[in-house]
User: Which sequence fits this backbone?
């Protein structure tokens, strides 16, 4: 009898989260047929926030790619390898999700990436104003917060102007206890504290799990058996304050030229939770009251 093959280091005996890797078409079909529960809302707005370079725009592009069945690059992302922290997103921009030739009833709002240099109330303040629907698309983020006398300020936002879910995009490679990371998580906490009493759901999308763990890089289906990824998600939950059940690991499309079912199903599962959480919240009416 041959020697028993040893288990690779860092692999859990069982997946810590039950996940059906064959549910892509079911999730996609459900999201394509999704109808809003509030007749006064024309679309669900989802705000995407996160640190510069975490993959906000890449996540939006990846969602668009899943529904188009091909790689899409509508949201401009930093694809440089210089390692410099810079945000390509300078203005508030909305991306409507399309499937085939039809618009789906939800859209992502891309906002300027959070900068790690200093804790400033300006960025969180603009994000909170955007969540409550006071910021027009096209607003250019400046050093100073948007004020009510600005042309881009919406005094009386409609339900469709408001965001009913906030997605924090966090790079699995950078969630640790370094000083820069602490500043970013403090900013996310400021946003979270400002909107939590309004019942606005908050979801974390943890990107670059393939880069953070060699096991996952070799086989994406190992993401829920990776001890390293589980620990990173637990740390993320503790630092930002979002429950584990609202944290989703994903791999964004980056240098691929074709879509992949395993990549797609992780993205679709995250989006399904985001959309359903947002719809449940907007059913109760305005978020800014």
Assistant:
């Amino acid at each position: 009898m041959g020697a028993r093959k040893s288990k690779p280091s860092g692999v859990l005996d069982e997946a810590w989260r039950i996940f059906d890797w064959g549910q892509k078409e079911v999730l996609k079909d459900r999201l394509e047929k999704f109808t809003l529960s509030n007749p006064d809302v024309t679309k669900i707005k989802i705000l995407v926030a996160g640190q510069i370079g975490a993959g906000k725009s890449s996540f939006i592009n990846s969602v668009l790619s899943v529904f188009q069945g091909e790689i899409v690059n509508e949201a401009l992302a930093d694809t440089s390898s210089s390692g410099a922290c810079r945000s390509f997103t300078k203005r508030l921009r909305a991306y409507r999700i399309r499937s085939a030739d039809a618009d789906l009833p939800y859209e992502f709002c891309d906002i300027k990436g959070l900068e790690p240099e200093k804790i400033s109330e300006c960025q969180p303040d603009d994000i909170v104003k955007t969540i409550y629907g006071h910021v027009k698309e096209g607003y250019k983020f400046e050093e100073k917060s948007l004020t009510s006398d600005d042309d881009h300020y919406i005094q009386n936002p409609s339900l469709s102007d408001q965001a009913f879910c906030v997605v924090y995009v966090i790079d699995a490679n950078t969630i640790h206890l370094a000083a820069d990371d602490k500043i970013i998580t403090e900013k996310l906490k400021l946003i979270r504290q400002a909107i939590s009493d309004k019942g606005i759901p908050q979801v974390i999308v943890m990107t670059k799990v393939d880069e953070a763990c060699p096991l996952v890089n070799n086989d994406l289906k190992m993401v829920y058996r990776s001890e390293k990824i589980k620990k990173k998600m637990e740390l993320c939950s503790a630092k930002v304050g979002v429950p584990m059940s609202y944290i989703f690991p994903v791999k964004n499309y980056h240098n691929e030229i074709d879509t992949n079912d395993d990549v797609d199903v992780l993205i679709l599962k995250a989006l399904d939770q985001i959309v359903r959480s947002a719809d449940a919240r907007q059913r109760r009416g305005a978020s800014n009251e």
